Amino acid sequence: MSANQSELDSFRLFSSNEDNKPQLGFSFLDDPPEKPPLPLPPPCLEVVPPQVSSSVKPILEPVNLDGLTLLKGRVSTHDVFALSNSDLVPGKYEGGLKLWEGSLDLVKTLRSQVESNNLSLVGMKVLELGCGHGLPGIFSCLQGASAVHFQDFNSEVLECLTIPNVVANLPVKSQSLGADAEVRFFAGDWREVHQILPNLQTDDRDSNCNSESTASVGYDIILMAETVYSISTLPSLYELIKKCMSHPHGVVYMAAKKYYFGVGGGSRRFISLVEKDGVMVASLIAEVGGGSSNVREVWKLQFK
Asked: Residue ranges under compositional bias (Polar residues) (predicted)?
């Protein structure tokens, strides 16, 4: 699953992969002249591992990340969602069953930051948004985070993929899963999921998080990979980050492609939104690809 494979030169967001093997790339998407209204998002809920009884069992495969080996599951979108030729159906399924290359970039960058003493995950409260396979969150558990909460749009992704991946990679010492971390799983749309995330003050809270009373509230580190592909969801994602991020020392690590052609999003579009708001400062800490392929980036966001 090298980040330098030839398929990175193609740009596939929607895939027709028959056997549902992990796709590292995106394709051009033709926007229709008019789009039907999206269905109502699924309800926000916490997925509790002991209560999960999914009949869909993933096939475990190793992923080598420059010497670090993690296990990831492979499941069929047909078995889980009755979808055979698409990685994304807006409003119904947001691609969480695929392993996108940004997730691998993010794990590698976090590891590099830890090894260079620019980051410590020990004792941190971590939230992975749009987690899918959850490899960055799993890495945070292995590095000693005190709490890691995984969020995905679809509860089915958490049940059939994220939770099995956590179980496969972490020693199980209690019902909470994981070594010493509090590991929990939350499904829901970015516009509403903050209502069920623990340790957040959401009532009458200043979205800019400038109040001293919010200093101990929220997550120390927010992780997200390939979450900024759709221009229509960028504002709600950014507002969620501001609600969830601990002030004043919280940090966001975001891995994404520079541009997602056809759907309008991308890391630069998201960073433009952040800079226009003026609450956070963004710094580019890693870049992958170039030349004829679409550049992939990892950004770090902090409060000013």
From this structure: 1-17
Question: Got the DSSP string for 96-135?
Answer: TTS--HHHHHHHHHHHHHHHTTS---TT-EEEEET-TT-H
Least Cα distance to 301 among 213, 212, 228 occurs for: 228
Q: What is the pLDDT of residues 205-263, one digit of tens each?
A: 444 444 444 445 899 999 999 999 999 999 999 999 999 999 999 999 999 999 998 78
Task: Write down the pTM of the prediction.
Answer: 0.82
| Whether the Cβ atoms of residue 218 and residue 250 lie closer than 8 Å to each other | yes
pLDDT in tens, 155-210: 999 999 999 999 999 975 443 444 578 999 999 999 999 999 997 754 444 444 44
Question: Which CATH architecture does the domain made up of 6-303 adopt?
Answer: 3-Layer(aba) Sandwich (3.40)
| Alpha-carbon gap, residue 232 to 247, rounded angstroms | 26
Q: What is the per-residue DSSP string for 127-184?
A: EEET-TT-HHHHHHHHTT-SEEEEEES-HHHIIIIIHHHHHHHS---STT-SSSSEEE
**SS3 labels along 183-200:** EEEEECCCCCHHHCCCCC
Tokens of 280: 């956070």
